Amino acid sequence: MSARSSLESRLAQAAALIEPVLERVLPRERDLFISEAVWYHMRTGGKHIRPAICLLTCGQFGGEVGSALNFAAAVEILHNVLLIHDDLEDGDTMRRDQQTVWARFGAGNAINVGDYMLAVALKTIMDSPISDAKRVRLARVFSDAFQDTCRGQALDINWRGIASIVVDDYLKLVTLKTGRYMALGMVGGGIIADADEGVIELLGELGQRMGAAFQIRDDTIDLTFGKGRGGVTGNDIREGKSSILYAHAICAADAAQKRELIRIMVKPRAETDDADVEKVRSLYRELGSMEFAERKARALVEDAFQIIERLPPSNREFFREITDYMVSRSK
Amino acid sequence: MSARSSLESRLAQAAALIEPVLERVLPRERDLFISEAVWYHMRTGGKHIRPAICLLTCGQFGGEVGSALNFAAAVEILHNVLLIHDDLEDGDTMRRDQQTVWARFGAGNAINVGDYMLAVALKTIMDSPISDAKRVRLARVFSDAFQDTCRGQALDINWRGIASIVVDDYLKLVTLKTGRYMALGMVGGGIIADADEGVIELLGELGQRMGAAFQIRDDTIDLTFGKGRGGVTGNDIREGKSSILYAHAICAADAAQKRELIRIMVKPRAETDDADVEKVRSLYRELGSMEFAERKARALVEDAFQIIERLPPSNREFFREITDYMVSRSK
User: Fold this and answer.
1) Cβ atoms of residues B71 and B125 within 8 Å
2) Residue numbers of chain B with a pLDDT score lower than 70
């Protein structure tokens, strides 16, 4: 069995432990007009990668996996809240090839169901079979990561089609929006396992690099395979999102290219047609934006590997595998 | 000085203690595209009644007010999150006679800013100068009340203009949506002050009655003075909300009246004109719905007073005053 398939099977085993916790804290029939929407969304898949990494990280540092189940489930719930709310914020009607929650149940229910799930996530952390001191610490890191994710999302929403973005702005955005909560499961796993403070800090750094690299690959996938929206590619262009491709192109473009790029990006989604998407795609090709994105993703993975070298030797192989897995897989 | 004005000044003094906490946990200049919207909303007033009641309750049971400041601020933040999200869920463009957050900053920012504030509220509880055991307990009651508020909101959203609602359904809705988080500040104040378990439970019961009575009065105010939406009355009718007036009328109406009532309630907001509102208003008058609402509010206040009789004698006068104040004031 290759290292990768062995990791995949360990992740799948860990992910399977999360299902019963989710079923317990979010019973399928409990709440009128809420439970149905929760499970409509949750059943559309997702491999529970983040909670699985949380559990395996806890195990890596000698912690009991059972004591991390609640926190891991809370991380998965937060992830799904962010998807439900983001889909509405972005006006996306499809996810994983089915209607998004707001498209199916209305905007009001989508907001409210997400809020409800957040409350459940908090309760789930508090019900962890660990000391009160650890519960409090987990709630703090949960809140910090969640706050930063919202900060990143604020940049994402308000920086669409702007002319002044540079690649560093983009990296700040994705580190906040994707990196901080990618790190959350690992940080929580480390805390629960009583890992050294230095190690916990490194896990936070590592997760942020992984998250940023993951997001860059996701940006490029949007132009190649599409992001589970019925095979449609170029969704980021239609939405005018500040992807790494856009951030690179807007810096590298000449005045005429810049005008054309911005013109298409600021167009309302419904008015952006396939020809517009093709124009931007060929501009990205001409300016080498895809190659730039690839180089940047590789540099972040290099950074991650440097961080891993500072972890205890016996843990390094595991985190190298995780990094490879997260950055190379498609969503 | 009358009892009422003395209570008002004590509430105002307590409310003044919350301002600096809010300024500290939500700095005005911290976050691009977030802080501006937070303070645009927060500065539109609100008397910080819920956190003030939390602080005075803590004092009533011999607790240090300083140790309750963080929790009280978290209650106020939650209240404002719910307003920001509810305004969007309801499509309300005006609150306290200015544009709502979503109308001013867009739906995406309104959702995201609310989420961010929730994360801050959680952190604020965790930073309370109290034991970890109490922090955990406060997070639990916070989560419980927040979950129930969302459950109530789910009924509110999905029970609009339905034919089968009865008054008990309405009471369930408002007890969840308004009562549980009205009680939250008092319950938290009791926990922080180490009040007896029995007392804490009574405070929860009391807050729920107060909240339901408050909401019933609020429903009637919508038809008399309007709810701070530029003097417009009948907003609940335009939105098709299941108010107590609607729940009563739909039970008391004959078949023709029922058809007419439902026809107007299910109309999209933009198509409901002043003549429709007048028709419903006169139907409510004919059926005695306003008087019914008034009787129901008074019965809930009576219930509240019965609960207060089971509190320690030295605390009773305070909670009677609070109940009177909450139920009789306009928003």
Assistant:
1) yes
2) 1-3, 44-45, 228-230, 329-331
What is the extent of the structural domain holding B77? 3-328
ipTM of the complex: 0.96
B41 by Cβ neighbours in 10 Å (0-12 / 13-18 / 19+) ranks as buried
Contact B237, B267 (CB under 8 A): no
Nearest residue on chain B to A138, judged by CA atoms? Answer: B126
| d(C-alpha A241, C-alpha A249), whole Å | 13
Structure tokens at B2: 């009358």
Best of B80, B81, B115 to disrupt the A interface (most A CBs within 10 Å) is B115
For residues B193 and B58, is the Cβ–Cβ distance under 8 A? yes
Tell me the pLDDT tens digit for each residue of B198-224.
Answer: 999 999 999 999 999 999 999 999 888
Judge whether B31 and B160 are in contact, CB under 8 Å. no
Nearest CA in chain A to B92: A108
Q: What is the CATH number of the domain that holds B60?
A: 1.10.600.10
pTM: 0.96
User: CA end-to-end span of chain A, whole Å?
Assistant: 23
Total domains present in chain B: 1
Question: How far apart are the C-alpha atoms of B178 and B297, rounded to whole Å?
Answer: 14
pLDDT given at position B46: 75
- How far away is chain A from the Cα of B142, in angstroms, using its nearest Cα? 8
